[in-house]
Each structure stands twice: as structure tokens, then as C-alpha cells.
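REVIEWER CHECKLIST
Item 1: Sequence provided? yes
Item 2: Single chain? yes
Item 3: Sequence as submitted:
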Amino acid sequence: ATSHYVSERLDEGPIISQEVVPVSHRDDVESLARHGRDLETIVLARAVRAHIDHRVLVFGNRTIVFD
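Item 4: Structure as written out by the authors:
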């Protein structure tokens, strides 16, 4: 899951937060969708918090996120 700033081109804005989750061959469509939703929620919340706390520095099409 990735959260990024909006740019003129689709999905090409500077990334604020990104995360992956392991999946198994045993996962079905519902569990994969649940994993994706849960991870997207976490990543979006983390990105919004970093932005409102002024911890994101945008430089060109890249970001630096301070902890």
C-alpha cells in the first residue's frame, strides 16, 4: 500500500508512506482484500499524520519523512 501526494499524472506523486504485508498461497480473495484494506488504512493514517505534523519535506518528486 502506498500513500502519496497528488500530481498531474495518476499515481506518480511523491510517496509519503509505503508498506507491504506478507501473503500466503492459502489466502483467498476475501483475506487478500482484508489484508489490503487494513494495510491501506494504516498507511494512509501514517501519511496524513506525517503531513499534518509537518514532518514531510518534498524535494522534486521525492520526499523525506522525519520520524
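Item 5: Key structural point noted by reviewer: The mean pLDDT is 96.
Item 6: Recommendation: ____
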